Amino acid sequence: MTSEDTVEGGKPTLEAVGALAGVSRATVSRVINGYSTVKPEMVEAVNNAVAQLRYVPNRAARSLVRRRTQMIAMVIPERTAEFFADPYFAEVIQGAAMYASSTDHTLTLLIESDADPEKTRRYLTGGNVDGALILSHHSSVPAYVELADAVPMVFGVRPLEPTARQIHVVDVDNVEAAVTATRHLVERGRTHIATIAGPLDTAAGIDRVQGWRSAISDAGLTPGPLEAGNFTPASGGEAMQRLLDGGERIDAVFAASAQMAAGALEVLRTHSIRIPYDIAVASIDNNYFSTSSTPPLTTVDLDTANKGAVLVKTLQRLIDGEEVAPFTAVPTTLVERQSV
Amino acid sequence: MTSEDTVEGGKPTLEAVGALAGVSRATVSRVINGYSTVKPEMVEAVNNAVAQLRYVPNRAARSLVRRRTQMIAMVIPERTAEFFADPYFAEVIQGAAMYASSTDHTLTLLIESDADPEKTRRYLTGGNVDGALILSHHSSVPAYVELADAVPMVFGVRPLEPTARQIHVVDVDNVEAAVTATRHLVERGRTHIATIAGPLDTAAGIDRVQGWRSAISDAGLTPGPLEAGNFTPASGGEAMQRLLDGGERIDAVFAASAQMAAGALEVLRTHSIRIPYDIAVASIDNNYFSTSSTPPLTTVDLDTANKGAVLVKTLQRLIDGEEVAPFTAVPTTLVERQSV
DNA sequence: CTGAAAGCGCTTACAG
DNA sequence: CTGAAAGCGCTTACAG
């Protein structure tokens, strides 16, 4: 190794790579960006020089000339930590960050400030990012929809109301997921299927009830009673209690979340009701709560980490000006365990 | 359709602001960066122009000339989601992201790839970031310590082994937190205090045992039995069962985490042991598990979101070349509820 | 105290 | 196919 290799002035530049490879920096740039017009022998010389110098392109310089920040913001609600018994955000973030790290977009987390909601919007429209992923709660979604043509955006949940302008959303098909879980109950011979629904002012809550209903009527059965919770274990337990108190005959419960199902299971045990013998339970979402409950839950896996990745992919296509469908569905799968 | 460009040709530049304010762009730059040498009337003219044009500095251009990326990486383990019943990471990330958003550093999430651990290190040393926050598990910490003089770094947990080179860590004082919880038990007249410890190959596990011991011996008492778990509710329940099976007299338990305490509480209820009357329980960490258990837990609040903010602050000082203490303690507080 | 000017490290028309 | 050159939008010595 010659002393020329050890550059003193810090990071090697395009210029240095070009000098070593015996070409201009324009050519180095072309090779690095994969232009196919460069002669093979030059490509090789450049690649060798890049490897030898451990050249890494300067993002700021590239950004400046391309007029792209190469950054993507993921907008999440401030109060997230309080609901973090629900691993949802953590999983999306992780999936998105992992996928982003394999591309040349950097993912940055933007926490919505409850005190100053405008701040987030100003950031997004201030040219700080090439695009944004919106994972906010329903209530703040409409405000972002307005910005959707100032900066490319992909939403992680469908808005409750139809939107004036065309937007892009990536999510699981909640109706289908509920159909899958409920149909499984039907196939196991259950005929009196109640539901513990999610909040009925959220898309997930509404869609999952719809799926439950449609699977039941497809089977020629009558829907059992419905009680709603707020996705937490405690609310699931309370809903289960109300279902029991209602006195209607029930041989199965479809719970709109594993957390609520876990709470329901506890209540059922208290009453010495055998699961699945007396009452079978199927739910949606596969996480800590579905695996550590007694018995473990038969549930629909939403592959939330994959949803994170698909969100990023979809946004990148939007940024690149490609045609993107208004809705991209992330596939889900039924996981059979002992509760059915 | 892409022709909504009625806004005077894209983002305003320094040049445009200068033109409107009647000064050179050098002066605008000085005002924006708060140099005190500028005449008040010019400062005002510039500020007005900035407001009027809604000027936002171009980060890439600034980055390029300052030779700073203005980015900070937060390195977290890949397997995080699996342990996400523990809200720890979510809270640190949230605290860090919120604080960072008030500064001109952008926080980016770097998930360690289990498949290619070198990748993360290459990213960090490739000039992509001005500094890094390391929240990895103990096992991978030593590899990062090696990089600590290639790029500024702050660690979220103290390394188990003494390190060759000087590093900087920000964390709660785990010994002190355990002393606080245990002393509270002592003050309420408990004399036979057992502990459900964390994993004894982690700094938090070790330090909390030490705090428990020292509070007990300070009180002139003898330590009760010790059983270790792995911070999950299930492991806490099992440890509690072993404590009971051991047959030693116990009138209090110090659990090294709220999650383990929650598991212990369930086991105690199964045995119809009254809490706190028969056995008082104090723990560490204030989250979903401490508030939703029956009864709610008396526990030490670790203020994890604040830890996230302090991590960022400390790193920024390091980046700015300031003198930083090797250890920065994040303050904790005792929260009294019904379990003691 | 202020401005003209020289870059920071890239990309990309434009010639050849 | 390749290179010389003109910027991208800032900051900061350097004069005045």
Automatic annotation (TrEMBL), chains A, B:
Keywords: DNA-binding, Transcription, Transcription regulation
Signal peptide (from-to): none
MF (Gene Ontology): DNA binding
SUPFAM superfamilies given in the database record: lambda repressor-like DNA-binding domains, Periplasmic binding protein-like I
Domain HTH lacI-type, residue spans: 12-66
A family per Pfam: LacI
Domain of life: Bacteria
InterPro entries according to UniProt: HTH_LacI, LacI/GalR-like_sensor, Lambda_DNA-bd_dom_sf, Peripla_BP_I
Protein's name according to its UniProt entry: DNA-binding LacI/PurR family transcriptional regulator
Species for this entry: Conyzicola nivalis
